[in-house]
Write a structure and sequence with these properties.
The chain is an alpha/beta fold and 437 residues long. Helix content is 38%, strand content 20%. The chain has a six-stranded mixed beta sheet, sandwiched between helices. Strands 8-9-7-10-11-12 form a six-stranded mixed beta sheet, with helices on both faces. α9 packs parallel to α10 and α13 packs across α14. It is globular, with a radius of gyration of 24 Å. The structure holds guanosine-5'-diphosphate (2 copies). One guanosine-5'-diphosphate binds next to α6.
Amino acid sequence: MNLVAIVGRPNVGKSTLFNRLIGQRQAIVSDVAGTTRDRQYGKAEWTGREFSVVDTGGWVVNSDDVFEEEIRKQVTLATEEADLVLFLVDVKTGITDLDQQVASILRRNSGKVMLCANKCDDNMSQYAAAEFYSLGLGDPYPISAATGSGTGDFLDEVLRRLGPDTKAGAEDDGIPRISIVGRPNAGKSSLVNAFIGEERNIVTDRAGTTRDSILTRYDKFGFDFYLVDTAGIRRKNKVKEDLEFYSVMRAIRAIENSDVCVLLIDATRGIEAQDLNIVNIIQRNNKSLVVAINKWDIADDKSPAAIQYFENTIRQRLAPFTDFPVIFVSAVTKQRIYRVMETAKNVYLNRKRRVTTSKLNAVMLPIIEATPPPSMKGKYIKIKYCSQIPNTQIPTFVFYANLPQYIREPYKRFIENQMREKWDFHGTPINIYFRQK
Ligand code: GDP
Ligand code: GDP
């Protein structure tokens, strides 16, 4: 299991710990994505194992009266949705009322909780940490998010508590796993219902028994696919849905378990920060993307100019990844909803696309010859050949060169754009590496 949530009252160091856990990685990833859209969700990696981290602090509405209630809701949700909850407390202030309240919620599900005494910057404060034992959540684990001392041991313990990495569908059976994600009220449940109705009998008995229950297999309209987390969409709880945090936790689970994510955007609201947060999760996880603009039936302006504007805006906001389909749909009138499925299936095929080495070289080498990488420090850079690496999550290509370290980002982007022109990778990220030969 893979989802870690950091909880605790304000100022205990949640965001500091979050940054420490994902910091280095984030820097690498955002270099590619060119953004720093999101400070609440990230991927951490330790000894080769990757896991997701959510900082609940990022969602707290900062107004005094809703404050404690808000924290209480988030902590409750974190214990339901996360695999491991890091409960941060502050040794410099000791136990506060709010710590007590948070602890009382967490004690109901204490198996998932790791109590962390933060700000143990020196040995003395490690002794102070002992007082938190009285919260009834076991021995506090001393950490210092600020200095990072002891972080290795801490991460070992986090991995130990997470247990083995058992993501659903880790084994690939060639059937697309599709999730429908989006803000609350974007129309996710409506779309799912429009596709598959309320009938239960359409669920084939081939439904994967070895798989996590988050996947439900459907064989409908000529499409054989898994819908990810429909139960979660259907069994929704309006109170919870109001919380962005809840929808984000749900989205993380769904996205991590899918191949293709259909991002529903509400046409009447346009693109909002929350949509971009979800895109960010999709991109961090290297998932394929179909954007569906829903509620098109009630959009004010449906002129070609409006459609163009919508499309352009979305691509700009999601840049530099712009090669994905955008479909205008209505879950209510069912306009183009089958196109969504068909497109998701095609995007899945693009994700699985294999290009033979001979074809790849026949097409790419002349392009590279005509536009070689710019020479660096007077050195001539020669790309000799290329090939696709088999059995990767997304199409991954290696270009062998004499001086790969001198090939810069713009050239890499040029190669990627050329490949996207020659082969259909619509909706899917691809990896391109340059290696020594
Ligand atoms: P959050 O509100 O829980 O997200 O807390 P922050 O991460 O914003 O941290 C609150 C304050 O505590 C900031 O001034 C941090 O610099 C400080 N802080 C965080 N971790 C540590 C730590 O390990 N040691 C010390 N001394 N200060 C820390
Ligand atoms: P979810 O929270 O994303 O699952 O959204 P719901 O499916 O519950 O939809 C939220 C609201 O939007 C409901 O009142 C739906 O009837 C309405 N809705 C969803 N899709 C459409 C659509 O295509 N057109 C219109 N007019 N309303 C829609």
